[in-house]
From TrEMBL:
Biased composition (Basic and acidic residues): 82-96
Molecular function (Gene Ontology), one example: RNA polymerase II general transcription initiation factor activity
Region (Disordered): 77-96
Keyword Secreted recorded: no
Name recorded for this polypeptide: Transcription initiation factor TFIID subunit 10
Database matches in InterPro entries: TAF10 (IPR003923)
GO cellular component, one term: SAGA complex
Location of the protein in the cell: Nucleus
Pfam families from the UniProt entry: TAF10 (PF03540)
């Protein structure tokens, strides 16, 4: 089992400090007030705006992954459904996202998140 050296730990601490400091200059898509509301609703009080923004960034990443995966499911489903209707495909290129697409994406992304927590 590899034990981190003091120098390696110092580098990690410095990188974490730099990252947290950069959050002060970053405006996440999800407003601080919304994150603060849900964090407080869960019973956690956090006066540090850096941590609030870290939660916002993690939430934004999660939502982006779900939306991207749902789009892929939607495209795959509609590509398969339109193969018989080539003429209609040329006229109507809009995608229709369904709850099934979203549900599949949520299961996949949640599974990946859990795999990172419990390898």
């Amino acid at each position: 089992m590899n034990h981190p050296t003091n120098e390696g730990r110092h580098d990690d601490d410095a990188a974490l400090s730099d990252f947290l400091a950069s959050l002060m200059d970053y405006t996440p898509t999800i407003p601080d007030e919304l994150v603060e509301h849900y964090v407080a609703k869960s019973g956690f009080q956090c006066p540090d705006v850096r941590l609030i923004r870290l939660v916002a960034v993690a939430t934004q990443k999660f939502i982006t992954e779900v939306a991207t995966d749902a789009l892929q499911h939607c495209k795959a489903r509609q590509t398969g459904a339109v193969k018989d209707k080539r003429d209609k495909q040329q006229k109507d290129k809009r995608l229709t996202l369904t709850m099934d697409d979203l549900s599949k994406a949520l299961r996949e992304v949640s599974g990946r998140c859990l795999n990172h927590l419990h390898p």
